[in-house]
Amino acid sequence: MSNHTIPIVREQDFILIRSHIQELCAETGMNLINQTKLITAASELVRNILNYAKSGKVMMEIVSINARQGIKLTFTDEGPGIENLQAAMQDGYSTSSGMGLGLPGAKRLVSEFAIQSAPGKGTIVTLIHWKDGH
Amino acid sequence: MKMQVDDTMQRNNLVSREELQRQSEELLTALLQAIKKGNFDNVYTDDYAQVNDILSDISVMRARQGFSPRETNRFVLSLKQALCDVLEQEHAGTPEVLYKEILQVNSLLDNLSIIAFETYIKGREDVILRQSDEINEISTPVIRVWEGILALPIIGTLDSSRTQTVMENLLQEIVETGSSIAILDISGVPTVDSMVAQHLIKTVSATRLMGAECIISGIRPEIAQTIVHLGIDLSNIVTKATLASALQVAFARLNLQVRSIDRMAAPLLK
Lengths: 134, 270
Prior knowledge:
The complex is a heterodimer of chains A (134) and B (270). Chain A has 4 helices and 5 strands; from the N terminus they run E-H-H-E-E-H-H-E-E. Chain A has 134 residues and is of the alpha+beta class. In chain A, strand 4 and strand 5 (123-130) form a beta hairpin. Chain B has 2 domains: 2-137, Globin-like; 143-253, Transcription Regulator spoIIAA (2-Layer Sandwich).
Protein backbone atom coordinates (compact mmCIF):
# COMPACT_ATOMS: atom_id res chain seq x y z
CA MET A 1 0.00 0.00 0.00
CA SER A 2 1.22 3.45 -0.76
CA ASN A 3 2.42 5.46 2.18
CA HIS A 4 3.58 9.04 1.88
CA THR A 5 4.95 11.48 4.37
CA ILE A 6 4.96 15.14 3.46
CA PRO A 7 6.48 17.89 5.61
CA ILE A 8 4.30 20.88 6.46
CA VAL A 9 6.14 24.18 6.66
CA ARG A 10 4.30 26.59 4.40
CA GLU A 11 0.72 27.25 3.35
CA GLN A 12 1.59 26.04 -0.13
CA ASP A 13 2.48 22.57 1.15
CA PHE A 14 -1.22 21.88 1.42
CA ILE A 15 -1.49 21.85 -2.37
CA LEU A 16 0.85 18.87 -2.50
CA ILE A 17 -0.95 17.15 0.35
CA ARG A 18 -4.31 17.70 -1.33
CA SER A 19 -3.15 16.17 -4.59
CA HIS A 20 -1.77 13.14 -2.73
CA ILE A 21 -5.07 12.67 -0.90
CA GLN A 22 -6.87 12.97 -4.22
CA GLU A 23 -4.67 10.22 -5.64
CA LEU A 24 -5.42 7.96 -2.67
CA CYS A 25 -9.14 8.73 -3.04
CA ALA A 26 -8.99 7.76 -6.70
CA GLU A 27 -7.24 4.53 -5.72
CA THR A 28 -9.94 3.58 -3.24
CA GLY A 29 -12.74 4.97 -5.40
CA MET A 30 -14.01 7.37 -2.76
CA ASN A 31 -16.79 9.65 -3.98
CA LEU A 32 -16.53 13.40 -4.32
CA ILE A 33 -18.42 14.31 -1.17
CA ASN A 34 -16.32 12.09 1.08
CA GLN A 35 -13.19 13.21 -0.70
CA THR A 36 -14.09 16.86 -0.08
CA LYS A 37 -14.84 16.15 3.58
CA LEU A 38 -11.50 14.44 4.10
CA ILE A 39 -9.56 17.15 2.27
CA THR A 40 -11.31 19.89 4.24
CA ALA A 41 -10.50 18.14 7.53
CA ALA A 42 -6.89 17.81 6.39
CA SER A 43 -6.86 21.50 5.53
CA GLU A 44 -8.01 22.40 9.05
CA LEU A 45 -5.25 20.33 10.60
CA VAL A 46 -2.57 21.69 8.28
CA ARG A 47 -3.65 25.21 9.23
CA ASN A 48 -3.51 24.30 12.92
CA ILE A 49 0.02 22.99 12.52
CA LEU A 50 1.13 26.11 10.66
CA ASN A 51 -0.60 28.41 13.14
CA TYR A 52 0.50 26.88 16.40
CA ALA A 53 3.43 24.53 15.81
CA LYS A 54 4.89 26.33 12.75
CA SER A 55 5.93 23.02 11.22
CA GLY A 56 5.08 19.35 11.24
CA LYS A 57 4.37 16.47 8.92
CA VAL A 58 1.57 14.31 7.64
CA MET A 59 1.59 10.64 6.80
CA MET A 60 -1.01 9.43 4.33
CA GLU A 61 -1.96 5.83 3.72
CA ILE A 62 -4.73 3.53 2.60
CA VAL A 63 -6.02 1.25 5.32
CA SER A 64 -8.40 -1.67 5.05
CA ILE A 65 -10.19 -3.68 7.71
CA ASN A 66 -12.47 -6.53 6.69
CA ALA A 67 -12.51 -5.49 3.05
CA ARG A 68 -13.47 -1.99 4.13
CA GLN A 69 -11.18 0.56 2.63
CA GLY A 70 -10.35 3.98 3.92
CA ILE A 71 -7.70 6.64 4.06
CA LYS A 72 -5.72 7.32 7.19
CA LEU A 73 -3.93 10.59 7.81
CA THR A 74 -1.55 11.12 10.70
CA PHE A 75 -0.54 14.68 11.51
CA THR A 76 2.47 15.04 13.78
CA ASP A 77 4.05 18.17 15.14
CA GLU A 78 6.47 19.09 17.87
CA GLY A 79 4.81 22.36 18.70
CA PRO A 80 3.65 23.72 22.07
CA GLY A 81 0.88 21.13 22.38
CA ILE A 82 -2.67 21.77 23.52
CA GLU A 83 -3.21 22.72 27.13
CA ASN A 84 -6.92 22.15 27.43
CA LEU A 85 -7.80 19.37 25.03
CA GLN A 86 -11.41 19.21 26.10
CA ALA A 87 -11.95 22.89 25.43
CA ALA A 88 -10.06 22.70 22.13
CA MET A 89 -12.54 20.09 20.91
CA GLN A 90 -15.46 22.40 21.61
CA ASP A 91 -17.06 24.62 18.98
CA GLY A 92 -16.01 28.22 19.14
CA TYR A 93 -12.98 27.75 21.37
CA SER A 94 -9.83 29.28 19.96
CA THR A 95 -6.63 30.59 21.44
CA SER A 96 -6.05 32.67 18.32
CA SER A 97 -8.39 34.82 16.24
CA GLY A 98 -9.85 31.84 14.38
CA MET A 99 -13.46 30.67 14.47
CA GLY A 100 -12.62 27.80 16.80
CA LEU A 101 -14.11 25.27 14.41
CA GLY A 102 -10.92 23.59 13.21
CA LEU A 103 -10.63 20.58 15.50
CA PRO A 104 -14.33 19.95 16.26
CA GLY A 105 -15.20 20.59 12.62
CA ALA A 106 -12.55 18.19 11.38
CA LYS A 107 -13.83 15.57 13.81
CA ARG A 108 -17.35 15.89 12.42
CA LEU A 109 -16.10 15.61 8.84
CA VAL A 110 -14.34 12.26 9.10
CA SER A 111 -15.24 8.74 10.25
CA GLU A 112 -12.66 8.39 13.00
CA PHE A 113 -10.69 11.02 14.83
CA ALA A 114 -8.10 10.72 17.58
CA ILE A 115 -5.96 13.38 19.15
CA GLN A 116 -3.01 13.11 21.52
CA SER A 117 -1.44 16.19 22.95
CA ALA A 118 0.21 17.57 26.04
CA PRO A 119 1.81 20.95 26.70
CA GLY A 120 5.37 20.93 25.44
CA LYS A 121 5.01 17.49 23.91
CA GLY A 122 3.56 18.34 20.51
CA THR A 123 0.37 17.01 18.99
CA ILE A 124 -0.56 13.90 17.04
CA VAL A 125 -3.88 13.82 15.24
CA THR A 126 -4.99 10.64 13.51
CA LEU A 127 -8.01 10.54 11.28
CA ILE A 128 -9.52 7.81 9.19
CA HIS A 129 -12.20 8.29 6.61
CA TRP A 130 -13.83 5.16 5.28
CA LYS A 131 -14.75 4.95 1.65
CA ASP A 132 -18.49 4.82 2.43
CA GLY A 133 -18.15 7.85 4.68
CA HIS A 134 -19.36 6.17 7.90
CA MET B 1 50.18 28.08 -10.47
CA LYS B 2 50.04 30.39 -13.44
CA MET B 3 50.34 27.47 -15.76
CA GLN B 4 47.40 25.81 -14.12
CA VAL B 5 45.26 28.80 -14.68
CA ASP B 6 46.25 29.17 -18.30
CA ASP B 7 45.56 25.59 -18.93
CA THR B 8 42.17 25.55 -17.26
CA MET B 9 41.23 28.64 -19.13
CA GLN B 10 41.98 26.94 -22.38
CA ARG B 11 39.95 23.98 -21.34
CA ASN B 12 36.95 26.05 -20.57
CA ASN B 13 37.41 27.89 -23.81
CA LEU B 14 36.68 24.69 -25.62
CA VAL B 15 33.06 25.61 -25.13
CA SER B 16 33.53 28.62 -27.32
CA ARG B 17 31.19 31.31 -26.16
CA GLU B 18 32.28 34.82 -25.37
CA GLU B 19 30.10 35.07 -22.30
CA LEU B 20 31.41 31.79 -20.99
CA GLN B 21 34.97 32.92 -21.53
CA ARG B 22 34.38 36.11 -19.61
CA GLN B 23 32.75 34.18 -16.79
CA SER B 24 35.53 31.65 -16.50
CA GLU B 25 38.17 34.34 -16.67
CA GLU B 26 36.52 36.17 -13.83
CA LEU B 27 36.15 33.02 -11.80
CA LEU B 28 39.69 31.86 -12.42
CA THR B 29 41.24 35.20 -11.55
CA ALA B 30 39.35 35.22 -8.28
CA LEU B 31 40.15 31.59 -7.61
CA LEU B 32 43.82 32.18 -8.30
CA GLN B 33 43.90 35.05 -5.83
CA ALA B 34 42.22 32.90 -3.22
CA ILE B 35 44.56 29.98 -3.73
CA LYS B 36 47.58 32.26 -3.42
CA LYS B 37 46.62 32.84 0.19
CA GLY B 38 47.29 29.18 0.82
CA ASN B 39 43.84 28.32 2.08
CA PHE B 40 42.66 25.10 0.49
CA ASP B 41 40.29 23.84 3.13
CA ASN B 42 37.66 26.34 4.04
CA VAL B 43 35.77 27.96 1.19
CA TYR B 44 33.54 29.87 3.58
CA THR B 45 36.29 32.24 4.70
CA ASP B 46 36.93 35.76 3.42
CA ASP B 47 39.68 34.45 1.12
CA TYR B 48 37.00 32.91 -1.04
CA ALA B 49 34.39 35.63 -0.70
CA GLN B 50 35.01 36.88 -4.21
CA VAL B 51 35.06 33.39 -5.70
CA ASN B 52 31.79 32.61 -3.99
CA ASP B 53 30.21 35.83 -5.20
CA ILE B 54 31.17 35.21 -8.79
CA LEU B 55 30.09 31.60 -8.59
CA SER B 56 26.76 32.56 -7.06
CA ASP B 57 26.11 35.17 -9.73
CA ILE B 58 26.87 32.72 -12.48
CA SER B 59 24.70 29.99 -10.94
CA VAL B 60 21.73 32.27 -10.32
CA MET B 61 22.02 33.63 -13.85
CA ARG B 62 22.12 30.12 -15.26
CA ALA B 63 19.12 29.08 -13.22
CA ARG B 64 17.17 31.99 -14.73
CA GLN B 65 18.37 31.23 -18.23
CA GLY B 66 17.09 27.69 -17.87
CA PHE B 67 20.37 25.79 -17.79
CA SER B 68 20.12 22.25 -16.48
CA PRO B 69 21.74 21.48 -13.11
CA ARG B 70 24.23 19.24 -14.91
CA GLU B 71 25.37 22.05 -17.20
CA THR B 72 25.72 24.44 -14.30
CA ASN B 73 27.73 22.07 -12.16
CA ARG B 74 29.90 21.00 -15.07
CA PHE B 75 31.16 24.54 -15.23
CA VAL B 76 32.85 24.08 -11.87
CA LEU B 77 33.69 20.43 -12.12
CA SER B 78 35.43 20.77 -15.48
CA LEU B 79 38.09 22.70 -13.59
CA LYS B 80 38.87 19.61 -11.61
CA GLN B 81 39.97 17.53 -14.56
CA ALA B 82 42.06 20.38 -15.88
CA LEU B 83 43.80 21.00 -12.58
CA CYS B 84 44.44 17.30 -12.08
CA ASP B 85 45.99 17.05 -15.54
CA VAL B 86 48.37 19.88 -14.81
CA LEU B 87 49.29 18.46 -11.42
CA GLU B 88 49.93 15.10 -13.00
CA GLN B 89 52.42 16.65 -15.41
CA GLU B 90 54.14 18.72 -12.75
CA HIS B 91 54.53 15.98 -10.17
CA ALA B 92 54.98 13.03 -12.50
CA GLY B 93 57.98 11.71 -10.54
CA THR B 94 56.61 12.15 -7.04
CA PRO B 95 53.34 10.25 -6.58
CA GLU B 96 53.02 11.15 -2.87
CA VAL B 97 53.02 14.85 -3.61
CA LEU B 98 50.69 14.30 -6.55
CA TYR B 99 48.25 12.36 -4.40
CA LYS B 100 48.17 15.02 -1.72
CA GLU B 101 47.74 17.85 -4.19
CA ILE B 102 44.97 16.07 -6.05
CA LEU B 103 43.11 15.43 -2.80
CA GLN B 104 43.31 19.11 -1.96
CA VAL B 105 42.11 20.20 -5.39
CA ASN B 106 39.34 17.65 -5.17
CA SER B 107 37.92 18.81 -1.87
CA LEU B 108 38.27 22.46 -2.84
CA LEU B 109 36.35 22.04 -6.07
CA ASP B 110 33.75 19.81 -4.45
CA ASN B 111 33.03 22.58 -1.99
CA LEU B 112 32.83 25.11 -4.78
CA SER B 113 30.46 22.92 -6.73
CA ILE B 114 28.22 22.62 -3.66
CA ILE B 115 28.08 26.41 -3.49
CA ALA B 116 27.27 26.58 -7.18
CA PHE B 117 24.52 24.04 -6.75
CA GLU B 118 23.00 25.69 -3.71
CA THR B 119 22.80 29.04 -5.41
CA TYR B 120 21.49 27.44 -8.58
CA ILE B 121 18.57 25.99 -6.62
CA LYS B 122 18.02 29.28 -4.85
CA GLY B 123 17.87 30.97 -8.22
CA ARG B 124 15.24 28.51 -9.39
CA GLU B 125 13.23 29.02 -6.21
CA ASP B 126 13.27 32.75 -6.79
CA VAL B 127 11.81 32.14 -10.22
CA ILE B 128 9.05 29.98 -8.74
CA LEU B 129 8.32 32.54 -6.04
CA ARG B 130 8.02 35.30 -8.60
CA GLN B 131 5.70 33.20 -10.69
CA SER B 132 3.43 32.45 -7.75
CA ASP B 133 3.27 36.16 -7.01
CA GLU B 134 2.27 36.76 -10.60
CA ILE B 135 -0.40 34.07 -10.47
CA ASN B 136 -1.76 35.67 -7.33
CA GLU B 137 -2.02 38.98 -9.06
CA ILE B 138 -3.71 37.83 -12.23
CA SER B 139 -6.13 35.43 -10.64
CA THR B 140 -8.19 37.99 -8.75
CA PRO B 141 -9.88 40.15 -11.35
CA VAL B 142 -12.89 42.29 -10.58
CA ILE B 143 -15.42 42.23 -13.41
CA ARG B 144 -18.13 44.81 -14.05
CA VAL B 145 -20.98 42.59 -15.13
CA TRP B 146 -23.55 45.33 -15.24
CA GLU B 147 -23.95 48.91 -14.17
CA GLY B 148 -23.78 48.64 -10.39
CA ILE B 149 -22.90 44.95 -10.27
CA LEU B 150 -19.39 43.61 -9.74
CA ALA B 151 -18.33 39.98 -9.97
CA LEU B 152 -15.22 38.43 -8.48
CA PRO B 153 -14.44 34.91 -9.61
CA ILE B 154 -12.03 33.48 -7.08
CA ILE B 155 -9.86 30.69 -8.45
CA GLY B 156 -7.47 28.63 -6.39
CA THR B 157 -6.77 28.38 -2.71
CA LEU B 158 -7.90 31.33 -0.65
CA ASP B 159 -5.22 32.06 1.92
CA SER B 160 -4.79 35.15 4.05
CA SER B 161 -2.69 37.06 1.53
CA ARG B 162 -5.04 36.20 -1.34
CA THR B 163 -8.03 37.33 0.72
CA GLN B 164 -6.28 40.59 1.41
CA THR B 165 -5.73 41.17 -2.33
CA VAL B 166 -9.31 40.17 -3.15
CA MET B 167 -10.71 42.45 -0.48
CA GLU B 168 -8.57 45.40 -1.50
CA ASN B 169 -9.42 44.99 -5.19
CA LEU B 170 -13.10 44.66 -4.44
CA LEU B 171 -13.39 47.61 -2.09
CA GLN B 172 -11.38 49.79 -4.45
CA GLU B 173 -13.58 48.83 -7.37
CA ILE B 174 -16.76 49.48 -5.37
CA VAL B 175 -15.60 53.02 -4.77
CA GLU B 176 -14.51 53.58 -8.36
CA THR B 177 -17.62 52.21 -10.03
CA GLY B 178 -20.14 53.14 -7.38
CA SER B 179 -21.50 49.61 -7.49
CA SER B 180 -24.01 48.47 -4.94
CA ILE B 181 -23.81 44.72 -5.42
CA ALA B 182 -20.77 42.45 -5.48
CA ILE B 183 -20.86 38.77 -6.33
CA LEU B 184 -18.07 36.57 -4.96
CA ASP B 185 -17.95 33.39 -7.01
CA ILE B 186 -16.15 30.52 -5.30
CA SER B 187 -16.68 27.80 -7.94
CA GLY B 188 -12.93 27.78 -8.48
CA VAL B 189 -11.97 27.40 -4.82
CA PRO B 190 -11.08 23.75 -4.24
CA THR B 191 -11.33 23.65 -0.45
CA VAL B 192 -13.53 25.74 1.79
CA ASP B 193 -12.41 25.21 5.38
CA SER B 194 -13.15 27.34 8.43
CA MET B 195 -10.38 29.80 7.64
CA VAL B 196 -11.53 30.34 4.05
CA ALA B 197 -15.08 30.77 5.36
CA GLN B 198 -13.86 33.28 7.90
CA HIS B 199 -12.08 35.20 5.15
CA LEU B 200 -15.25 35.19 3.06
CA ILE B 201 -17.31 36.45 5.98
CA LYS B 202 -14.80 39.24 6.59
CA THR B 203 -14.91 40.26 2.93
CA VAL B 204 -18.71 40.33 3.04
CA SER B 205 -18.68 42.46 6.23
CA ALA B 206 -16.20 44.89 4.70
CA THR B 207 -18.36 45.21 1.59
CA ARG B 208 -21.37 45.92 3.75
CA LEU B 209 -19.50 48.64 5.57
CA MET B 210 -18.98 50.27 2.20
CA GLY B 211 -22.72 50.29 1.72
CA ALA B 212 -22.77 47.55 -0.87
CA GLU B 213 -24.32 44.13 -0.76
CA CYS B 214 -22.34 40.94 -1.23
CA ILE B 215 -23.61 37.66 -2.65
CA ILE B 216 -21.55 34.47 -2.55
CA SER B 217 -22.14 32.15 -5.49
CA GLY B 218 -20.67 28.93 -6.80
CA ILE B 219 -21.37 26.80 -3.74
CA ARG B 220 -21.09 23.23 -4.94
CA PRO B 221 -23.10 20.44 -3.26
CA GLU B 222 -20.04 18.90 -1.60
CA ILE B 223 -18.92 22.30 -0.35
CA ALA B 224 -22.36 22.96 1.11
CA GLN B 225 -22.23 19.67 3.01
CA THR B 226 -18.74 20.34 4.25
CA ILE B 227 -19.66 23.81 5.49
CA VAL B 228 -22.59 22.39 7.44
CA HIS B 229 -20.45 19.66 9.01
CA LEU B 230 -17.79 22.13 9.95
CA GLY B 231 -20.43 24.14 11.77
CA ILE B 232 -19.93 27.36 9.87
CA ASP B 233 -22.88 29.72 9.98
CA LEU B 234 -23.39 31.50 6.68
CA SER B 235 -27.11 32.09 7.26
CA ASN B 236 -26.91 35.87 7.25
CA ILE B 237 -25.10 35.95 3.93
CA VAL B 238 -26.92 35.61 0.63
CA THR B 239 -25.53 32.50 -1.03
CA LYS B 240 -26.39 30.93 -4.37
CA ALA B 241 -25.38 27.76 -6.15
CA THR B 242 -24.56 29.40 -9.45
CA LEU B 243 -23.33 32.73 -10.72
CA ALA B 244 -26.47 32.92 -12.88
CA SER B 245 -28.82 32.80 -9.92
CA ALA B 246 -26.67 35.32 -8.05
CA LEU B 247 -26.98 37.62 -11.08
CA GLN B 248 -30.71 37.18 -11.02
CA VAL B 249 -30.82 38.27 -7.39
CA ALA B 250 -28.64 41.24 -8.25
CA PHE B 251 -30.88 42.24 -11.15
CA ALA B 252 -33.94 41.93 -8.96
CA ARG B 253 -32.37 44.24 -6.36
CA LEU B 254 -31.67 46.81 -9.03
CA ASN B 255 -35.18 46.42 -10.43
CA LEU B 256 -33.88 45.04 -13.67
CA GLN B 257 -35.38 42.20 -15.59
CA VAL B 258 -34.00 39.79 -18.13
CA ARG B 259 -36.59 38.15 -20.35
CA SER B 260 -36.81 36.50 -23.70
CA ILE B 261 -38.28 38.57 -26.46
CA ASP B 262 -41.65 37.55 -27.73
CA ARG B 263 -41.13 38.12 -31.45
CA MET B 264 -44.84 38.20 -32.23
CA ALA B 265 -45.40 40.94 -29.69
CA ALA B 266 -42.41 42.97 -30.81
CA PRO B 267 -42.60 43.02 -34.59
CA LEU B 268 -40.25 45.99 -34.82
CA LEU B 269 -37.29 43.82 -33.91
CA LYS B 270 -37.82 41.42 -36.77
